[in-house]
Amino acid sequence: MEEQIRTTVNIAGRSYSLKVSKSDSQTVQAAAELLNKKFQEMKLHFQSSDSQDHLAMSAIMNMTEQLKKSSPDESLLEEISSKLDSANIELMKVMKS
User: Fewest Cβ atoms nearer than 10 Å: which of 11, 49, 54, 67?
Assistant: First the structure.
């Protein structure tokens, strides 16, 4: 069993302490960095003052990109993509109002 270490990531201005395998530590840090980058993009594109909306949009966009990169069963991918698109549309409506 691989050694577990504690690492802290900052996401949307908040710190989170995680216990991860030593080999995953850099990947977790990189994931937090990418999420923060997408979070900043969402803040620029949508004028909502609610950081949770921006974070939710960031998570959806990142997961959509990840799902497109992996190649699971085509029908499953289409179903997930459709659900994510619907959620994205609803969140965009909320953020624009």
Answer: 49
CB 68 within 8 A of CB 92: no
The Cα 23–Cα 54 span in angstroms is: 30
pTM here is 0.63
Helix (H) or strand (E) holding 77: helix 74-96
Give CA–CA dist 45/60, Å, rounded: 15
Q: Is 11 left (phi over 0), alpha (psi -120 to 50) or beta?
A: beta
Q: Contact, 14 vs 42, CB < 8 A? A: no
Res 72 pLDDT > 80:
no
